[in-house]
Amino acid sequence: MTTSLEELDYAEASTELNQGMIALEATQKTFARVSGISLFDLI
Q: What are 6-17's pLDDT values in tens digits?
């Protein structure tokens, strides 16, 4: 972990942020789909 903004690799930070956002979006979509499932839907 860097201690100074001057040492920050902006390309790497941008890539990591983008990957985190993609993972968050996938998690939210999965949660929305799963939370809408009910046992009554399967009967």
A: 788 999 999 999
